[in-house]
């Protein structure tokens, strides 16, 4: 049974509520679905030592609400990329903000092949 005002999604027999519209007619969403985010970063060469020191000190761990799925550092470069999962894009933004004094970020949600196929099917 589908509930009016609810957006559904999922993969092969697994139904997941992606978002539920409030019953008061407000178009804001009350639920979010877990999204995969790609977070790429660069830093200026003059920030290398400060970036390395902070990474050694903190481990670069994500905040609560963000699960890091993997992180890769470019060998001999000032670049890297991380893949993380979160229901809360604000938590992802706060993670990047905590490093923004030393690094520049390009963060965006992505879809799997299966999810993307639904866009044009």
Kindly describe this structure:
The relative contact order is 0.19. The protein folds into two domains: 1-33, no CATH class; 35-116, 2-Layer Sandwich (Alpha-Beta Plaits). It has helices at residues 48-58, 89-97, 113-117, and strands spanning 6-9, 16-20, 35-43, 67-73, 79-86, 103-110. Helices cover 21% and strands 34% of the residues. With 121 residues, the chain is an alpha+beta fold.
Percent of residues in beta strands?
25-35%
SS-based structural class? alpha+beta
Strand order of the largest sheet: 4-5-3-6
Oligomeric nature of the chains: single chain
Label the CATH architecture of the largest domain: 2-Layer Sandwich
Biggest sheet architecture: 4 strands, antiparallel
Estimate the global geometry from the Cα principal axes. Answer: elongated
State the name of the first-level CATH class of the largest domain. Alpha Beta
Describe this protein with a few key phrases:
Alpha-Beta Plaits; 3 helices; 6 strands; 21% helix; single chain
Give me a quick take on this structure:
The protein is α+β, with helices and mostly antiparallel strands. It is 21% helix and 34% strand. The strands form two sheets. The protein has a four-stranded antiparallel beta sheet with strand order 4-5-3-6, with helices on one face. The protein has a two-stranded antiparallel ribbon with strand order 1-2.
